[in-house]
Amino acid sequence: MINSIRNTVLSTLNKNNYGYISPADFNLYAKQAQLEVYDEYFSNYNKTINMENMRRSGNDYADIGQALSETMEYFLTSNFLIKSTTNNFFIPSITTTGDEAYMISRLSVYSTLIINSTNTSVLSVSLIDSSADFITLGVQVGDIVSNGTTNQVTTVVNVVNATTLLLSQDIFGVTGISYFIYSAANIKDSEKVSAGKITMLNNSMLTAPSLLFPAYTQESSVYRVYPTSISNPGQIQATYFRYPKDPKWTYVTLLGGEPSFDQSQPDYQDFEMPAEDEFKLITKILQYCGISIRELQVVNYAMGKEQREQPTFSQQQ
User: Fold this and answer.
1) Which of 84, 156, 183, 229 is the most buried (most CB within 10 A)?
2) Where are the domains of the chain?
3) What pTM, to 2 d.p., does this model score?
4) CATH architecture of the domain covering 113-182
5) Residues of the chain with confidence (pLDDT) below 50
């Protein structure tokens, strides 16, 4: 999609010799345009729900809310959070989870600790502890296994025997590493509260957060989870809407000619928007281009096209 959009943008600009947009500038404008379209999904979904409540929205093929939710859920993901200190866990970020959170949907707590011990041997994608009895402890397929040193988290694929577990990822490279195993069957949703309210809750015998009813606050770049006993790697899993990846049009340079599109480059990234949003991306990029080349006519043309666009499933209603 990104090459088609760039060709359309350049064709529109070159029609009247308005100017040329470099690949670097195009990538910057593409990023901003995609963020605009992404942000509109949530505001449009809110408007669609309000329309449904007023009985002004259709169903079946006219169910705009369903189409919007399916588009939004493409960006819904889950990741275990990296422990910071004690009961603090870093919020999703490029450095911790590989992406950034636009909006947290739920913060889940694995409350039942099955075992906390140390591995005694190393085998690829396995956890071996000669002092444990995983069968007697009731370890099941799908249970959560975390490395207490690296904060890496994986799941149990198979209980091989009493002392060996087959894992979905290889997170134990040496012996003597502490590990935690949590039951996947006992998971609780944590309630977000304000920093001012959490003190009152903690001081009350009736409303204090517990493993049955955990709570959390957001402070700077961490989530502080209560009760404070929730402090181990693999205990907190966040489900959230992530930001789309930054689009990047990659190319190879031709001597004496235009750059040639090359999607085999390692940093290539297409738009993550559905095909129906291609027109919206083009018009938004043209607006940025018009501002860049100080050509009001280009800006007005793009804004006019955007206003006259026929409503679609991702369009404001």
Assistant:
1) 156
2) 2-73+248-308, 76-110+186-242, 113-182
3) 0.78
4) Beta Barrel (2.40)
5) 298, 302, 310-317
